[in-house]
Amino acid sequence: MRLYIDPGTGSMLFTVLIGIVGAALYSLRMLFIKLRFRLSGGKAQEDGKTVPFVIFSDDKRYWTVFEPICREMDRRGQDLVYMTASEDDPALSSSYPHVKAEFIGKGNRAYARLNILRAGILLSTTPGLDVYQWKRSREVRYYVHLPHAASDLTMYRMFGLDYYDAVLLSGEYQERQIRALEQLRGLPAKELRLVGIPYMDEMAARLEQAGPAPAHPRTVLLAPSWGPSALFSVYGSRILDLLLQTGYHVIVRPHPQSFTSEKEMIDRLMGEYPASGQLEWNRDADNFEVLRRSDILISDFSGVIFDFALVYDKPVLYTDPKFDLSVYDAWWLKEPPWTVGALPRLGQELTEENLGSLKELIDACLDDPKYAESRRRVLEETWAHKGEGAARTVDYLLERYEALGGEEK
Hints:
Elements: H1 7-39, E1 51-57, H2 63-75, E2 80-84, E3 99-103, H3 107-115, E4 119-124, E5 140-145, E6 166-169, H4 172-185, E7 191-194, H5 198-210, E8 219-222, H6 231-235, H7 238-245, E9 249-252, H8 258-261, H9 263-272, E10 279-281, H10 288-292, E11 296-299, H11 304-311, E12 316-319, H12 338-346, E13 347-350, H13 358-367, H14 370-382, H15 389-403
Parallel strand pairs: 1-2, 1-4, 2-3, 4-5, 5-6, 6-7, 8-9, 8-11, 9-10, 11-12, 12-13
Helix pairs in contact: 1-3, 2-5, 2-15
């Protein structure tokens, strides 16, 4: 009798095997890296003191996620160390007296520092703790994950959150997802706390203060992600041709990673479609103004969809990326990702069949009032405690630190 394994299970088993082999290899490698790190003069908390609170950011773009928390900690007079893997992270030039920001190197050098860290609580938005390079330090008492988007926590690569002690949530559906994964994998229950979304609170407050955008022609923002399933990879220059044919003002804002991983394609498109009175290419570090002055967003699976729809209260056109879920945590669950059901309520799907009617799709999304009510319902599902995210996050961190015993003697 021949043993049959269905393709989905086979893919999962292969991913698990790769994870086990990878973890073993990285464990051996990290022994060498730790020795090299110490011998090279890396800062390793030589005084043996434990830092009460640490934030780790693997990229400068997450400063918008963490700054509201840093500000609230500073307001309460609570010291923390902000460790970043970006040399030009805005945190390094911030002026919060109680926040000490430091660049800890890139790649393995950053992970080597983290793997021997002494801290009470470490807060991060980086998945994959204790899976590959980034290992749990024996001298860190508690690891807390903060999501950087208002959507599924199951769209991380497999085992993305398994080894965190706690996860901060923005919607109750995220709790159901995490508990289901824990049960399937036989994991101990994490501490889950519904706190909201600090960076979206910040964006909403900023928008209220700025007021409506100045009068402008109808403006379409094209903000693709990157990779083989992303909008430019699927539709190429055709979507730019169709957008220009609408007569509307067009802003193109590629994902920052596209300028590195897809440089040849982006350079070609920017050459074929140079900036003009109708078309602009946007690379602003801060996307606030470009979102504010756009009337509709066209994107794929980028988290900016939820920022645009929920904070700016505007409709979107989105594409179905047709993900291979076998490498994501979502593969394990019976229910489809929450995002799958949320997107049709925020706007219309852009497909190969309706691409030729792009102008009509844009007009329908902008003129049909049904999407405004749908956006409100989606907001209620994924943005709990609106306006209170930073305060609730800091409340939790301080409460958890005290429960862990507070300052070590």
